[in-house]
Amino acid sequence: MSNVHDIYPDGRITLREVGLRDGLQLVKTFPSTAAKRRWIEREYDAGVRHFEVGSFLPQKTFPQFADVREIVATVAALPGAHGIALVLNERGANEALGSGVAEIASVVSATEEHSQANANRSREQAIANVRRMCDLRDASAHRPVVSVAISMALGCSITGAVDPKEVIRLSEKCFEAGADIVAVADTVGYSGPKAVGELTEAVVKIAGRKPVCVHLHDTRGMGIANASAALDAGARILDGSLGGLGGCPFAPGATGNVVFEDLVFLCESKGFATGIDIEKLVGVRAILRDEMPHEALYGGLARAGLPGKSIKVAAAAE
Amino acid sequence: MSNVHDIYPDGRITLREVGLRDGLQLVKTFPSTAAKRRWIEREYDAGVRHFEVGSFLPQKTFPQFADVREIVATVAALPGAHGIALVLNERGANEALGSGVAEIASVVSATEEHSQANANRSREQAIANVRRMCDLRDASAHRPVVSVAISMALGCSITGAVDPKEVIRLSEKCFEAGADIVAVADTVGYSGPKAVGELTEAVVKIAGRKPVCVHLHDTRGMGIANASAALDAGARILDGSLGGLGGCPFAPGATGNVVFEDLVFLCESKGFATGIDIEKLVGVRAILRDEMPHEALYGGLARAGLPGKSIKVAAAAE
Hints:
The structure is a homodimer.
Chain A: H1 4-7, E1 14-17, H2 33-46, E2 50-55, H3 68-76, E3 82-86, H4 90-99, E4 103-109, H5 112-119, H6 123-139, E5 145-151, H7 164-177, E6 181-186, H8 193-207, E7 212-216, H9 223-232, E8 237-240, H10 260-269, H11 278-283, H12 285-291, H13 300-304, H14 307-317
Helix pairs in contact in A: 2-3, 4-6, 6-7, 7-8, 8-9, 9-10
């Protein structure tokens, strides 16, 4: 019988590794189930507790998530760890419930145009779907957390600029429908820190005691600056992927999610304890390099090391 | 008879291209004089007006700046453009004055240890040097701007953490010595946005009407986030280099200055007009690729394009 405040404790920041789902969404080669397990277990050892593990979307289209049930189980076996799975409809929600995953994440597009193009449904229908998921949650034994990402919340791949009022209205609807968390998603890395900060502040205000997640992509190099603004505006949950794994279907060559290890450094530098050991985290990149040698990995910490450490090495070499 | 407020107008942000000096500080192959000229002229065409052009350091050690006088002249020939040259001592200052460069930049280390190791002099002696440069300025015909960077202001490659009080004290001394501008420099990309914002705010406070520059490196991926914090704290001048050209002697593999084109996007996204055309600016990277094919270039805008543009292309392809 999970409670969102147990899984996302008040008064602290939670960083989530979304590389195993969002980071793998567009890749052609992907890690074996065993490698995914090592990835999770080594990040757990580094202090990470929240993992987006895959999706319950059609396996034919997304073979990289065919092992989602096993990955859900891998995370569930680690004390204090929390798995998140993406679902888009009732079939997926039922499968996710059956897997025992701790959190079910869904999506509502910020614009009608993107909702139709991406999911072949209206935003109204997407919110009805959230309501149905919350009913299923309430009727379930383990009562997973239900979270909803407002995709394209800071700019849309089809219509361009997005009115923040629409995002606030949709967030309200999701909370009314019973969502435990709303995630503001800059899906295509459209925006800068001013817009991210202002929208986050507005959604935090309507969320009340419910936590707000900000999901950012580093498409145009603004990822960490946007994360900093989101933290200042009261976001409690931030997503990232190891090495910034992942891409953007609308910007060829673009990077994926915010680099997880740099996000940890940002939080620590701002005085938010994450419980994550950056050097151990950087070490996990070896798994990604081995399993997906053609995928570009990004990140400043991996290149330069922690300030104290790299400087000690350099000073000794002088 | 130049005045700092003519060159750095009040009430607006100035972005400076420092790739031609800081970006070339550590490279082994460097652009020809003709290529440097094309670099400057094409960035000028994109709207850039402030260029760090080179240094008056010993040519034997820094052959990449042997053509500094010609580059000073290149910038001076462009209406409204402003050249900046680095000098470390009186000999250099006299040579810089002789070149007619619009701004002479010097350095004071934030820590005594770095001052001795880097320049073989105390911080007191470095400030006496600033005073002497200001005297030379006052006695000169064209009265260049004198700026001073407090290097290692946010963390030192030798001693680690730096007390902000020391940086504030040294900044005061530099202004008292007659400096027109103080630049707070995170030379080794040590810090995050909280520390950058707090230090910038403190230095802006003591600067009064004089402009404060914040000079950032992207060593650990915090560059744009730190720039955002510096802008929020009242910095009026920010440095960057095209493609993030440059490295860090204390962090092998680390990137150099903040990526100039991403910095422009950041400023515009925050509502600060820069007068710079990002797409034209991105186009200038071709010169760097041709002249220095082994140097890594970074940046989100160059990968993904402007949101509107890349999205239009993607939408058309769907």
